[in-house]
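Example record for the data management plan.
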Amino acid sequence: MTVRKRPQGKEFEDWCSHWDAAIHEEKLRLCEKIGVTYDTAKHWRSESGVPQGVDGTGLRMTVTISELFAVQPSVALDFVMFDIETSGFDADWDILLTACIKPYGYPPIVFRADKYPDWLTQRANDKEITRDIAIELRKHAIVVGHYSQRFDIRFLRAKMFHHGLEPLPPMFGVDTWKIAKDNFKVSNRRRGSLSIFAGLDSERDTPEGDRWMRATFNGEEEAMNKIVAHNIACVTGLEKLACISFPYLKSIPKL
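Corresponding structural encoding:
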């Protein structure tokens, strides 16, 4: 069996930088390119001694005007819909199952825990999916959710805190639940109910409750497929609800 030697010097620092910035699928491509398994690559990174986010080039906290106009912005000044599905309501007791980030007008970016190597044997370890969600979310300026500032964002932040990940940067948030709370006297402020009330949907999606248990405890792929479909439907419906709710928004607060 041929043992692949780890790159050295600047080559390895650059590889670590690419690994740190990559989501799970991109990590797999990095492994394939360099000819090692995913577990070997993870071991290389954890034992590297290279600080996370540093590529050895002497990063500065400031840039010149010419540099600013010459680079591609790392943050898109856009709106993204955000929704997560979890095994429960508290980050210290429950795990992330799926997440959808949908840039306005574009297809959703889907994250699902059962596509990660640890799912079969270490399902409680949701560090990799948490990290990948945070990497994508931090690329965008304004996050739209429903009850997100009381649940989705707080759950994600708690997971990031637990796993020792870098906090999200300063971002802004729009919560359609809060818009409804501040403006509409209705009996139910759930996203599906508001969408029906506004004429956006004809009926509400009411998934069976054991779907989450079958996914979490049994690792059932069919249950995860249904959870992902529900997650996608949520961000798609959220986008429509946000569009008609926006005129009632008085300000866009920081997350």
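Summary line stored alongside the record: The first strand starts at residue 76 and ends at 86.
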